[in-house]
Input
Amino acid sequence: MSAFTDRAEAALTDRLLKIAVERTAGTAETKRAAAVAAFPDFEAARTRAAAIKDHVIAHLGAYLEQFEANAVAAGARVHWASTADEACRIVVDICKAAGAKTVARSKSMLGEEIGLPHALAEAGIDRIETDLAEHIIQLAHERPSHIIWPAMHKTREQVSALFKARHRSPHEEESIAAMAESARRELRAPMLGADVGISGANFLIADTGAVCTVTNEGNAELSLVPPRVHIVTAGIEKIVPSMGHAIHMLRMLARSATGAALTQYTTFYTGPRRPGDRDGPEEMHIVLVDNGRTKMRGEGLAEMLRCIRCGACLNHCVVFRQIGGHAYGGTYPGPMGSVLTPALDGLRQSRDLPQACTLNGKCQEVCPVRIPLPTLLRGWREKSWREGLEPTAMRLGLGVWVWAARRPRLYRLGAAIAVRAMQLFARRGWIATLPFAAGWTRHRDMPKPARQTFMAQYRKERGK
Amino acid sequence: MSARAAILGRLKGAEPDRAEADALLIALERPRVDEGALEAEFLARLTLPSISATHAVIDSMDALPSAIARYLVQQGQPLTLCLPPDPRLSGCDWSAFTLHDSAAPDEAAALAIARKGIAETGSLIFETSAQAPMLPNFLTLHHIILLAASDIAPYLEDAPLPGLQPRAHYWITGVSGTTDIEGTYVRGAHGPRFQHVILLRQRRDVA
Output
């Protein structure tokens, strides 16, 4: 079995994981549905959001240059990184030049993608994760399992035990509010004392040079305003032409992610502290990261660059809801992760991910920028087949199927025998075990098939 | 070759057409706001569970200190307040208060003046300047915000400033909250746990 199937199998037998994922993803699904229903013509708004992103991606180079010129005019320093390693090196060098011993980090999936936590640790720089969920997984030495709720895999009971073991003055009352208060006490002083603040960017505004961050906790502002240096790491696809375009995307992002009309804190940072300002960083650095994005744009994955990292496709994915985020193995889980990971890490290492999909299309239905995720996943499957990456058993099995499918009479006979044989294994409408199909039935039951094949029933109906 | 040249080299393409970008914003889909009842719409948003702000109305700047004092007493808080160095506040009588000009890490209450309120979302709009530090608005437990009723605008599109941008332009829509543990909403994750809006119905006093 592959590493993915091992992880997925472990996840399927983890009862607590299922409870934890279902609690958060279920709530997110309900809230999004209510927010979308209350919005006038959300479908047209999705089409507009996709068109905005497509426009940007078509003119990405020019918009990046415009953003750079405006950010520099506002006093920021703009750096460019082709690879993850290059981006990490730039960030670590800025930290070292600032004499930084500690950095406060506001949650950023790009930071996870480029391996920034690891690079900071290697450089001997202490990292304070300020988002509550990132704080939880930092204490637990784990990776994020969701792009909006990185600690989705943890139950309240597990978080409580973790805080009691690791916080200096932990909560006494067993409530989520008391746990959040414990984290607030634990984080406040180190966060305010950090030498450097590091964030991602939800949007980069080309015509002003501003960097937009959104949070509900306010941790981005508390991480980025007190330190002397603010570093932004941003994927180059985060550009929008103007504030007006950003506003439309913000309306889509909040509703799709959490079901809110807007996040509690939306901040546009344009350069460092100005003369007379009482707070704010003295230096602002923006690292524009490619890490495979220009290649995706040129090789048939441009639509994936529309992604605004809302997590809606994860919350609505039947596979994600069963196995959680860690089983996927990459930085990005769920449907969007299954498209991105082969591009970022290579198809050979991640060919299982595009297969871990029922192609039910739910992810595409809820995507605020209309990414055709099932089509892109099928594209990876086809590429995997073309490049000979599918295992021998799969190639042989499909070969047999193709041979039979070209002989309709034989195929129908085989199907009729299979349907009758499956009846023998059914108990009360379900098949719990089936020879040669343990991989399917180990973790789920199969519904008892109809007594006759579709073609047999069709012929019967037509003959009436 | 520098990373910049390499990335831009891979992205060669036509210059964006400004008209094409602008056309993407024509006839926007957005929540409907009754522009004839902006104040009522804005105040209705403040009562949403996701915001849960309280509010009071005053008719002159002279009434501001007593309105803040009433709120703090109701909340069982001492009359201690972090005040921004904004000249519009210097004419008020703050003698009943212990004033802080910068926020302590555990600051109990801070006042800020919003440039705008947005009826669509209940957002309050701020910019940094020498008279308007940012940090107190995120450190304090009770965030008290003065807003002129005439500064309420319908849509988020009304929030940005034209031209040169301030260091930080920010929108606050409720209090610091989190759903990071099992998706359950909790207030006061890092920043303010309470928001109190004081609406001034006499525009010229805040101008």
Remarks:
- The longest strand of chain B covers residues 142-148.
- The two ends of chain B are 54 Å apart (CA to CA).
- Chain B has a mean pLDDT of 95.
- Chain B has five helices and twelve strands.
